[in-house]
Amino acid sequence: MDETSLKENERIDDLQCKGLKIIQNPNGFCFGVDAVLLSNFCEIKRGAKVVDLGTGTGIIPILIAGKSNANKIYGIEVQRQVADMANRSVKLNSLQNKIEIINEDLKNIQGLIEINSIDVVVSNPPYMNQNGGLKNPENLKAISRHEIKCTLEDVVKVASRLLKHNGHFYLVHRPHRLVDIMCLCRQYKLEPKKLMFVHPNKNKKPNLLLVKCIKAAKPELKLLDPLYVYNEDGSYTDEIYKIYGKESIES
């Protein structure tokens, strides 16, 4: 793909991982560190079938494809324009045999992907509920950040339906939604097993959390050491450099 294949305001960014690239539009929604952290937090076994709910521009499927030996990765995205960008990024990286982008509301996905058939479901969903200062409900950024097209419960419910018995669910979200996350996951038989808080630096409160759940597992939650993104001088911590440079997430 050359520059002439890009649409207005789009650019190609290097993901610094095995030559992978992604198409983004700064006027829409670009991926952040949360997507990178989630893709690294996942444990993907060889031959696994993976679903990313609310895939956006396809960053998580592309990173998982580059870092693991997953057999098939589905990216579900309701916004047509964003799903088109994801599809073109998949082609840009010649990953059509491994990644399939589905432009559909995740609440309707059960007719397209067999229930109880997926090994891993991941999601970096909208963080803000409908009362979270919404300005423009049709704006691409608003749909990506606010629960307009789907709620946290929708994501958890669909994840549980898609997963096999003992399948894994990985989620990145905001700490202020922790109680909602834990209650909904247990309600839909996704037992929280690992929890990590992500802090901007050692002097600030966490602004992200990563959680791993296992479908139909016994209760036992392990609280992992916190992850700090920046040093006091504003540089990335050694842990973040390792995550960005990590070559394999295969377990």
Q: Tell me, rounded to a whole number, the average pLDDT.
A: 89
- Given as residue ranges, the uncertain stretches (5+ residues, pLDDT < 50) are none
Q: Major beta sheet, specifics? A: 9 strands, mixed
CATH class: Alpha Beta
Report helical residue fraction. Answer: 25-40%
The global form is globular
Q: Give the full name of the CATH homologous superfamily.
A: Vaccinia Virus protein VP39
Describe the secondary-structure layout:
Blueprint: E1 11-14, E2 21-24, H1 33-41, E3 49-53, H2 59-67, E4 72-77, H3 80-92, E5 99-103, E6 118-123, H4 140-145, H5 152-162, E7 163-173, H6 178-187, E8 190-199, E9 208-215, E10 222-223, E11 227-228, H7 238-245
Parallel strand pairs: 3-4, 3-6, 4-5, 6-7, 8-10, 8-11
Antiparallel strand pairs: 1-2, 7-9, 8-9
Helix pairs in contact: 1-2, 5-6
What does it look like?
The chain has helices at residues 33-41, 59-67, 80-92, 140-145, 152-162, 178-187, 238-245; strands at 11-14, 21-24, 49-53, 72-77, 99-103, 118-123, 163-173, 190-199, 208-215, 222-223, 227-228. It has a single domain, classed as Rossmann fold, CATH 3.40.50.150. With 251 residues, it is α/β, with parallel strands linked by helices. It is globular and about 50 Å long. Strands 3, 4, 5, 6, 7, 8, 9, 10 and 11 form a 9-stranded mixed beta sheet that branches. It has a two-stranded antiparallel ribbon with strand order 1-2. It has 7 helices and 11 strands. The mean pLDDT is 89.
